[in-house]
Amino acid sequence: MAQVQKFGMNQGCLLVQSASHYLAHIELFEYKLEQQANIHFSVNEPSFFMYANLNQNSCWLCYRPAGKYQETIASGAHQLLLITFRPDWLIYKCHKMEELKPFTAFYRNAESAYNRLPSFDIAANLFNALQKMDAKGSDLIADADGYIFINHCLNKYYRKLAGQNPTHNYHLEKAAAIARFVKENYASAMVDDLPKIADRFMVSERSLARLARLAFGIPLHEQVINLRMASAFSLLSTTNKPIYEIAQLNGYNDPHYFSKAFKKYYGILPKSVEKTSKKLSVQEKITG
């Protein structure tokens, strides 16, 4: 790999090796944590990426829209491979891959939420291919070597996906519909009533849980919390609305419960963000 960075963390250490090719940016993460850790990060533009976990021998193809995110990293020793594809190339590549056409449509839809396709047991194969290239002294940045490896990863995943049940496209469409519903109604009590949501989409609660994971990569209630907290933080940062009103606007009737949930999510109380809001409003008046 071309670049190597090592980071020290309270819970352990993280080694990141990365290389950029004109088709994708490739990152290999090796870390060892004594306890699980939460990380916050931003995605500046919509992205397609492949995520492979060697410990689980699992690999996913994912889409993530621009925004702020939080992820929980499990404790222990892990090796992860992340390949972030150039969107226009992946869309072109998938044009002849029938099972991936609905997936690439997420990129053109401004309302699309995080989406993850099924996991397949090909992570070990991808890591082996990467290790063989390193052993030969191949350069991933070089056009030929990088092109072969990136295409190998995508084609390997696609062959697994294409061998699935033909109802997969139906599940993708159903998952996309659920994602739209949650994004439009996350502040409503409707999204807290799983039986009614299941009835609305004519599926069982068990199927709803599977479709939600397909749509978001996480359980439905966690996606609702992510949307509510992101909206609340934005309102606290950019408006002078009182906390109780912001709580109500984001599905919390009890402002005290909202404050506890907000602190659990961000590590600070809403009133701490509100102070920043007032500074922003003063600055706006000065510069306006």
UniProtKB/TrEMBL annotation:
Residues 176-276 form the HTH araC/xylS-type domain. It comes from the Bacteria. Pfam families: HTH_18. SUPFAM superfamilies: Homeodomain-like. It comes from Pedobacter heparinus (strain ATCC 13125 / DSM 2366 / CIP 104194 / JCM 7457 / NBRC 12017 / NCIMB 9290 / NRRL B-14731 / HIM 762-3). The keyword Ion transport does not apply. PANTHER family: ARAC-FAMILY TRANSCRIPTIONAL REGULATOR, HTH-TYPE TRANSCRIPTIONAL REGULATOR EXSA. GO terms for molecular function: DNA-binding transcription factor activity; sequence-specific DNA binding. Keywords: DNA-binding, Transcription, Transcription regulation. This is Helix-turn-helix-domain containing protein AraC type. SMART domains: HTH_ARAC (SM00342).
